[in-house]
Specification:
This protein is mostly helical and about 150 residues long. The protein is built from five helices and no strands. Helices cover about 70% and strands about 0% of the residues.
Length: about 150
């Protein structure tokens, strides 16, 4: 029996910014890995390292997008940052509830909904992302000095 991926990559997910596309693929690979291990009968408790990778990747991706949006002077940057933090906290809560209730599929449902809303957000932010050229991340003066040494 061949097991299917939980979320299949589609060309419609492409955002025309290579780093964003690669990170999106990485997030989906992690989600699909979690799905695979759950299909293999592993409990969510045993998969906490995979869950933590997912959380780390989601944070890393949000930080990348934040840097790009900051460089683009995105007017809703504060809301983006707040929403990104809330997603992580909500995900942690869902994971705890899924373990308590022995319903690991709750985690996958959350991740699918997050992915769909994240791709919808890109309808708004991708034009800004593709317009920005050059360095995305801004360093404070202290960090610049350390790099120059």
């Amino acid at each position: 029996m061949q097991k299917s991926l939980f979320i299949v990559w589609h060309d419609s997910f492409i955002q025309a910014e290579p780093i964003i596309d690669e990170q999106h693929r990485g997030v989906l690979a992690t989600i699909n890995s979690l799905h695979y291990f759950l299909q293999q009968g592993q409990g969510l408790e045993a998969l906490m390292p995979t869950v933590k990778i997912c959380i780390s990747y989601m944070r890393f991706h949000a930080a990348t997008e934040e840097g790009i949006l900051r460089a683009a002077n995105y007017p809703d940057l504060d809301a983006y940052i707040e929403d990104s933090s809330k997603v992580i906290e909500d995900f942690k809560t869902v994971c705890k509830e899924a373990i308590l209730n022995r319903e690991p599929e709750q985690v996958l449902v959350f991740l699918r909904q997050w992915w769909q809303s994240h791709i919808e957000l890109h309808e708004e932010i991708t034009p800004l992302i593709t317009e920005i050229k050059g360095q995305f991340c801004r360093l404070d003066e202290h960090e610049k000095e350390k790099q120059e040494k």
